Amino acid sequence: MTAALEAVDGRPVIVGGGIAGLATALFLAPEPVVLVARALLGTDGSSPLAQGGIAASVGADDDAGLHLADTLKAGDGLCDPAAARRILAAGPDAVAELERLGVAFDRAPDGTLALGLEAAHSRRRIVHADGDATGLALVRALTAAARACPSITVVEAEARRILVQDGAVAGLMVAGPSGGAVLRTRRLVLATGGVGALYEHTTNPASSFGLGLALAAEAGAELSDLEFVQFHPTALATGARPLALISEAVRGEGAILVDGAGRRFLEAVPGAELAPRDVVARAVWREIIAGRDVYLDGRASLGARFATRFPSITAGCRAAGIDPATDLVPIRPAAHYHMGGIAVDAEGRSTVAGLWAAGEVASTGLHGANRLASNSLLEAVVCGREVAHSIAGTPGGAAARLGTARLPPASDPAAARPIVSRFIGVTRDASGLETAIASLLPLARREGPCAAPARVGLMMAVSALAREESRGAHARTDFPATAAVARPGRVTLADALARAQRFAVADLALALSS
C-alpha cells in the first residue's frame, strides 16, 4: 500500500466519501487530489440516509433574507450571522451546480423545482430528489462524477492519525486492507460526519462516532459548541440500528403526533408539529419518560398518497410490519445531527495550519444551537466549494520524510456509548454530566480502541457542563432558563482533559472528607 501511495505524495487529501468530501474533491478539479473513504465510495456515512432535501431560496415567494431569518431563529442566538448569510445566499447556485454534476431534482408538473416544507421554515424551500431519497440521489450522482474525474484518486482506507510537524499538518496515517501507510501532505480536509453512533438510539450509521473530531483534537485543533446535538423527534421506534428516519417533510405534508390514546400533545405548542426540532424532540421525550407511547399519524393527511410521496419511508415502515397509510407509526427521538464540530473560518480552515473541515464535522456558524432542517446538505455543498477554493490558493507539496510512528488501532465506541447515551441525551443536568466526565476520563487517557470515542464524549460532556443554561438542542433541567448573552464555547482536548482531571480531584477530595 505504501509504495502505491508514494505517487500521490503532496496532493491535497480529503477524508470522507459523503457529500462534503465528494463536493470538495470535484470542486478542486482539475487539481489532483486523494479522496480517502472507509468503504466503497457512495456506500458509507450519513449522506446516503438523508431524506428531506436541500434548503435553498429558489421559490418565487422566497429569498435569502427570509431563509436567513428562519435560520437565525432556529439557531437560538448562536448562529454566526455573517457566515449564515454567506452560505444561504449561495443556495440557488449550489442547486444549479449539483444539477450540472448530474443530480436530477424532483420537478412540479409545470417544470419548476418541486419544493417541500419542513419545520421552522416560513416558505416551501426544500429541494428534493427521488421523493424522500435526496441524500442517496446526491451521493450516487457525485460518486459517478468523482469516478469519472481523472484528477481524483480514491483510496479505501480508514484515517487513524494526523501527523503534525512544527504546528502544521505533515501527513495522515491510514489503515487499509493491506496494512498501514502514511499520506504525506500539507493540505488535509476532514469531511467525516457527526457523532450519532456515540448514542444507542441514532439515525446515523455505525461509522459516525466522531472520528474526525478526535483526529482534529488530537492534532491540537479547537472544537466549538460540542454540547449541541440535535435529536430528530421522529425516528421509527424499532429494534433496528441505526433507527430508520421518518423525515420532517412527512409532518410538512400534514402528519401529526399523537399518544396511544390519540391525543395530539403538540396542538397547543406554537408551530405544533412544525415547531423547531429541539422543541418537538423534548415534547416527544416527555411523553416517553411519562410512560406513554408516541406515534406519527399520517392517515388523514396523506393516506394512500404516503407511498407515492415517501417511497423509502413507506418501505422501511412496511419492513417493520407497519403500513403508514393505514397504521399509526411508532416513533422516538434519536441522535441525528451535531451542530458543534471543528472550529473553522469562512474558508473552512481550522486552528491547525494545513487542516480544513467541511460538512457535519465542521462548526461554520450556520447552525448555532439548533440546525434548521435541510440546511446541512446545503452547507456540505457550499462549504465544500469554499474549502476547495481555499486549498487551491494554498501552496502544497509533501512534507519532509516523517519518522516512524505506531499505527493506532481501529476505534470502537462500545465502551463510551452507554455513558454518552445516558448522561448527554435529550435533557442533561450537572450530576449526570459529572458522572459522564468521571466515567469517560479513564477511557480517554488510554491508547486503545476506546480512546478516540471517549475523548469526543469527554469533550462533549465538559462543554455541556460549562454551559449553565438551556439553549436550542442543549437542555439543562437544572438550568432551564436561557442566558441573556449567547456565548460560543470552544475547547481543545488538552483543556477538556485538564478540566476533567480537576473535577476528578475535587470529587475525590469531597468523597474523602464526607
| Biggest β-sheet: strands ordered side by side in the sheet | 6-2-1-10-17
Which oligomeric state applies? single chain
Overall outline: globular
Question: How far apart are the termini?
Answer: 58 Å
DSSP summary: helix tally: 16
Class from helix and strand fractions:
alpha/beta
CATH architecture of the domain at 406-513: Up-down Bundle
Descriptive terms for the model:
four-stranded mixed beta sheet; alpha/beta; Flavocytochrome C3, Chain A, domain 1; single chain; Methane Monooxygenase Hydroxylase, Chain G, domain 1; 514 residues; 16% strand; 16 helices; five-stranded parallel beta sheet
Write the layout of secondary structure elements.
Layout: H1 2-5, E1 13-15, H2 19-28, E2 33-37, E3 54-55, H3 64-74, H4 81-89, H5 91-100, E4 115-116, E5 126-127, H6 134-147, E6 152-156, E7 158-165, E8 168-176, E9 179-184, E10 188-190, H7 211-218, E11 223-224, E12 229-236, H8 248-252, E13 256-259, H9 277-289, E14 294-297, H10 306-309, H11 311-319, E15 329-338, E16 341-343, E17 355-357, E18 362-363, H12 375-392, H13 417-423, H14 430-445, H15 451-466, E19 490-491, H16 493-513
Parallel strand pairs: 1-2, 1-10, 2-6, 10-17, 16-18
Antiparallel strand pairs: 3-5, 4-5, 7-8, 8-9, 11-16, 11-19, 12-15, 13-14, 14-15
Helix pairs in contact: 2-6, 2-12, 3-4, 7-15, 13-14, 14-15, 14-16, 15-16
